Amino acid sequence: MKKTTTFAITHFTVAFSVAYALTGDILVGGLVATIEPAINTVAYYFHEKVWQLKEQEGQRLAHA
């Protein structure tokens, strides 16, 4: 979970910076930076879980 948290912080910073640079609006930058990384972080968490299952399956087949 620590990896997911640090990823969220990094993503928030990048998303805010890009949105603010494109719009010049702190509110829009903040909204984009809050919504997009939040959704992406949840997707990333589940992506990691699926990836771990695939790796475990591969290891199980290698030892069979």
TrEMBL record:
* Domain DUF2061, residue spans: 1-52
Recorded hits in Pfam families, A to Z, give: DUF2061
Recorded hits in InterPro entries, A to Z, give:
DUF2061_membrane
**Protein name, as recorded:** Uncharacterized membrane protein
| Source organism | Thalassotalea agarivorans (Thalassomonas agarivorans)
